[in-house]
């Protein structure tokens, strides 16, 4: 592995609903994922995040794993319903107390706390009032950001407003396979705008409470055009605008692209100035490229997603394509030029069917190969002038993987869910040795 800059940030990521459990402890209110997971047929194994990895009670053990890994940063998310059980009103002190303990423990272990404010767990009461389709949710998000930063702003080293707003819009509101389960197709655009408006308002709230840098974490997927027709090219451009530009162009002051479903009626005067509040870091979440071709006649979509051949596959059946990460980073550099802030890869990882062997050890050579390839791609991008300053592995722990329940394992640490026993995998040791070097 080639050398990285001395100040490169090495980290791992998790999210609240996927690991915390304790969903009724200390006044936490229900989230849209609590509701969604209880609807028959929504989750592959019919599980919920009620216990997940029990991180709420085992955070000290998990902090020790972070210290042993030697990473310089830990990206976690704050559960909005743990801070505001109904999404409005004063902060729930007991909920903030948990994150106080976590942040103090991280700092004592020499690990920088990196806090994401929204990783998809909207308070159910706000969803009942319209959720992200309701413009008022953007204002509520800013109030929540203010309450959280008032308590933690002196110690969190990097704030991330939203995690993957494209995924939350498309899977949660467009296709209905994530919470809250709405099937709106391109009528989901208000969800995009209100998330971005909430981001901009939250940036202002955070700036008033902390001097730490502020970011957003977007999901990106370089588009691979399948077919050479003009229709295939138009389909690829449409998908690229929707997935890769819709949540980045307006952040960097370029306004909304001509993306499918774009509805200017929900954009009010002054909104784009709020959305374009300067950020210090652009978080890049990358898992795989996307194959696109022209749709069949009569399709409600202007593109068709097709499998990409010629790549190894993860247990999620996603192609393992490190070259896609390098391509993406170069594309961001070329597309945004001087407007592009420093980048940190805030998620990158893979699911495999890891299991302990007869001696209780967990060997995951595929994950080591994945990380090695993707880090080499990052190094190549840095060498080409892309300002990449950090890399966070998804994830520290095997966890509750949204609609897939407990069936997909992304962790550097194996979790036996019935006993909650943690077992570092061989990838944990590999990454530890890399970070030390």
UniProtKB/TrEMBL annotation:
Membrane-spanning ranges: none
UniProtKB keywords: Carbohydrate metabolism, Cellulose degradation, Glycosidase, Hydrolase, Polysaccharide degradation
EC main group: hydrolase
Entry EC no(s): 3.2.1.21
Catalytic activity: Hydrolysis of terminal, non-reducing beta-D-glucosyl residues with release of beta-D-glucose
InterPro entries hit by this protein: GH (IPR017853), GH_1_N_CS (IPR033132), Glyco_hydro_1 (IPR001360), Glyco_hydro_1_beta-glucosidase (IPR017736)
One Pfam family, short name: Glyco_hydro_1
MF terms (GO), sorted A to Z: beta-glucosidase activity
Recorded family membership: Belongs to the glycosyl hydrolase 1 family.
Protein name per the record: Beta-glucosidase
Organism: Micromonospora maritima
